TrEMBL record:
Its cofactor is FAD. GO terms for biological process: respiratory electron transport chain. Keywords: FAD, Flavoprotein, Oxidoreductase. Pfam families: FAD-oxidase_C (PF02913), FAD_binding_4 (PF01565). InterPro entries: FAD-bd_oxidored_4_C, FAD-bd_PCMH, FAD-bd_PCMH-like_sf, FAD-bd_PCMH_sub1, FAD-bd_PCMH_sub2, FAD-linked_Oxase-like_C, FAD-oxidored/transferase_4, Oxid_FAD_bind_N. Residues 37-218 form the FAD-binding PCMH-type domain. This is FAD/FMN-containing dehydrogenase. It comes from the Bacteria. One of its GO terms (molecular function) is oxidoreductase activity. Belongs to the FAD-binding oxidoreductase/transferase type 4 family.
């Protein structure tokens, strides 16, 4: 089948509205959010139903054409971007955007893959429920992408990752069949739990077209604090204090280095330092409760008093009112964008056991400074999960291209250090194309073998998102 014939057959399936062929309209689909990865494709196909997705997958399989599934295209590993050949078809799921069912009594919501995360949060709130996945890209990322990257974000501490929030999936397999797994059951021991094959598979094992997600009781009480700390270990100890006092009412705990906050204060309009003098480390902490009369401020203040007594806190402000809460979160959520103003941002998204966090930072910072004196290290993120974002900027007077040329060497430093604490080189962003080549150096060879076996079983011709996740 020639590309022209394929386009004609695809047009028969998805109609004019479902096909993008004009170069100026194609551009947004062919590069990632950070413009770090660029690809090429003659056509982007945008099916509107699961049946159309299945027909598109079957057509491309018959034509021997590879597919690159794409949701909101906010991924940070180049997983949703086609290669440079121009031979691949981008399959955008953004037209599958129905919320099929909300079931407050079963505490579930059934949504299609193209629904934006923020819409799910809003649909849950509309029935006095809570959908806890929350991340900086929530206004653009889609549920299909969240599932395929097993997204984490700021709510993992209390509610887990996307894997933990999912009860059922509907998937179009590489052979075009539809797996109807959309069951909202919290118990179903009828064989292998197949949904977990596709969650985190980054589009390499099939196309997720819908999901049944868990809902939780809405949180009506909230307390938020911004705290200055002497060290990452103090942050780990403070988590212990707040957990001992508040149990699972601790719903978020984010750490930020001084460098992270400096970039935000410099580049994000309207942000300001809550304290009069700078400190090395900060935490943004949130408690939540379903009751409005839970004295969360009091609980937070008691925990902070203990932290001050033990020298774990150097300064703190407990937010009064939603405007101040928003201002504190803006300091945290602005880091990613702010860093883009400082030249190349070499991103690393790692996890270690929480008990190893302090040693990880000490070892990694020292090794990075030895390699590139004056390197600016933006360390921040979901410390309660053991997950830090180690994003590196060049020294103040450094050269962009020279710094970029050191990317592999610097990544090795971060990954070797992480690996020495039995950590993971990708905590929540996945592997995409940016980390697949280092997998062989850090992943158990038997695990890699099993993954390849599953890939061969489900996608023997290798047409689902080739060049992503698994090393050659
Ligand atoms: P895309 O980028 O479109 O695709 C991601 C991967 O999933 C690709 O491999 C693609 O092929 C595959 N895919 C997409 N849809 C489907 C589908 N329906 N079926 C099969 N495969 C599919 N991530 C976090 O985990 N935590 C964070 O805190 C976080 N913060 C972020 C902050 C910012 C400012 C930005 C830009 C990104 C952040 N991310 C974070 C990364 C990103 O938002 C997540 O990985 C998100 O889950 C990607 O969703 P998406 O719809 O944009 O997916
Ligand atoms: C976060 C986002 C992306 C980055 O902000 O929690 O996951 O810049 C990150 O690493
Ligand atoms: Zn993150």
């Amino acid at each position: 089948m020639t590309p022209t014939e394929l386009s004609a057959r695809l047009r028969e399936v998805v109609g004019e509205a479902g096909l993008v062929t004009e170069p100026d309209q194609l551009a947004g689909y062919l590069t990632d959010w950070r413009d770090a990865y660029r690809g090429n494709a003659a056509v982007v196909v945008r099916p509107a139903t699961t049946a159309e997705v299945a027909a598109v997958v079957s057509l491309c399989r018959d034509a021997g054409v590879a597919l690159v599934p794409q949701g909101g295209n906010t991924g940070l590993c180049g997983g949703a971007v086609p290669d440079a050949s121009g031979d691949q078809v981008v399959l955008s799921l953004t037209r599958l955007r129905r919320i099929r069912e909300v079931d407050p009594a079963n505490q579930t919501i059934t949504v299609e893959a193209g629904v934006v995360l923020q819409q799910v949060q809003q649909a849950a709130a509309a029935v006095d429920r809570f959908f806890p996945l929350s991340l900086g890209a929530e206004g653009s990322c889609t549920i299909g992408g969240n599932l395929s990257t097993n997204a984490g974000g700021t709510g993992v501490l209390r509610y887990g990752t996307m894997r933990d929030l999912t009860l059922g999936l509907e998937v179009v397999l590489p052979d075009g069949r539809i797996w109807h797994g959309l069951r909202g059951l919290r118990k179903d021991n009828t064989g292998y739990d197949l949904k977990h094959l596709f969650i985190g598979a980054e589009g390499t094992l099939g196309v997720i077209t819908a999901a049944v997600l868990k809902l939780y009781p809405a949180l009506h009480g909230r307390a938020t604090a911004w705290i200055a700390l002497p060290s990452p270990q103090a942050a780990v100890d403070l988590i212990e204090i707040l957990r001992a006092r508040g149990g699972d009412r601790l719903t978020a705990f984010e750490i930020m280095s001084r460098q992270s906050v400096d970039f935000v204060l410099r580049h994000v309009p309207g942000t300001r330092d809550p304290f009069t003098s700078p400190h090395d480390w900060y935490a943004l902490v949130e408690l939540g409760d379903t009751r409005t009369d839970a004295d969360l401020d009091g609980l937070l203040e008691a925990g902070l008093a203990e932290a001050f007594d033990r020298g774990l806190a150097l300064d703190a402000v407990v937010a009064s009112g939603s405007a101040q809460v928003a201002a504190l979160w803006a300091l945290r959520e602005g880091i990613s964008e702010a860093q883009n103003h400082e030249g190349p941002s070499l991103k690393h998204d790692v996890t270690v056991p929480v008990s190893s966090i302090a040693a990880l930072v000490e070892r990694t910072d020292r090794a990075l400074q030895e390699a590139v004196p004056g390197i600016r290290i933006v360390v921040y993120g979901h410390i309660g999960d053991g997950n830090l974002h180690y994003n590196l900027s060049k020294p103040v007077d450094g050269d962009d291209e020279e710094f970029r040329s050191r990317a592999d060497e610097l990544a090795r430093i971060v990954y070797d250090s992480t690996s020495s604490f039995d950590g993971s080189i990708s905590a929540e962003h996945g592997l995409g194309q940016s980390k697949r080549d280092v997998m062989a150096d850090y992943k158990d060879p038997v695990a890699l073998d099993l993954m390849r076996g599953l890939k061969d079983l489900l996608d023997p011709v290798g047409l689902m998102n080739p060049g992503k996740v698994l090393p050659d």
